[in-house]
Design brief:
The structure holds 2 protein chains of 2 kinds. Chain A is mostly helical. Chain A has 3 helices and no strands. Chain B is mainly alpha-helical. Helices cover 83% and strands 0% of the residues of chain B. The radius of gyration of chain B is 17 Å and the shape is elongated. The chains are: A mainly alpha, B mainly alpha. The interface between A and B is large, with 49 and 49 residues.
């Protein structure tokens, strides 16, 4: 069980790392589109690791399914929002 | 012990979400401020999942689901406001024949 706890802790650390990476990208990248890229991908990867860690810690099949649903919904929402916000930003900058 | 670890991770994610507020404050365009709101949304989902796991409370997972849904609708509503005809998709606006 101790090995399992270490594994869960590692997954949590990875998830937090990707969340922090997403925030750093949002703050440091030079233009709107690269910031959008950092935000919509890094964050959801972090959420995926956190959801896996939570499912393993809980140890319940139904809860794990629900966590997977939460993650899938966030992924689809982020993909949709990335496309739409990118097009809107391109229009605002006077691009094609 | 493990519950404390999950709460610590939730605290770290909360601090990283607080960093997004800097972009909301300074962001040159409206899209940048909307992205900051989106980061707060996905960070909130992560925090809800972590707290649910720390307290073994399945009800908080519903909070995470609702928050994810609301963040998606917020992004859609934003795009519908910035497009000229309110179609929600800038390319759909061009394709329309008046």
């Amino acid at each position: 069980m101790n090995a399992m706890e270490w594994f869960i802790a590692g997954l949590l650390a990875l998830g937090v790392f990707f969340y922090v990476a997403g925030t750093v990208g949002l703050l440091r990248f030079p233009d709107t589109h690269s910031r959008l890229h950092a935000l919509t991908k890094a964050d959801n990867l972090g959420l995926g690791f956190i959801a896996i860690a939570a499912g393993l810690h809980w140890g319940d099949g139904w809860i794990a399914g629900k966590l997977a649903l939460v993650w899938l919904l966030t992924l689809f929402a982020a993909g949709m929002a990335a496309q739409l916000v990118a097009r809107a930003a391109l229009k605002a900058e006077g691009g094609e | 012990m493990m519950a404390d670890l999950f709460m610590l991770a939730a605290l770290c994610v909360l601090i990283s979400v607080a960093g997004a507020l800097i972009r909301a404050w300074r962001g040159p365009g409206r899209a940048d401020r909307m992205m900051s709101a989106q980061l707060i949304g996905s960070g909130g989902v992560g925090i809800a999942v972590l707290i649910a796991a720390a307290r073994s409370e399945p009800a908080i997972l519903d909070v995470a689901l609702v928050l994810a849904l609301l963040a998606a609708f917020a992004a859609l509503a934003f795009v519908k406001t910035v497009t000229p005809k309110g179609a929600g998709d800038p390319e759909a606006d061009e394709a329309e024949t008046p």
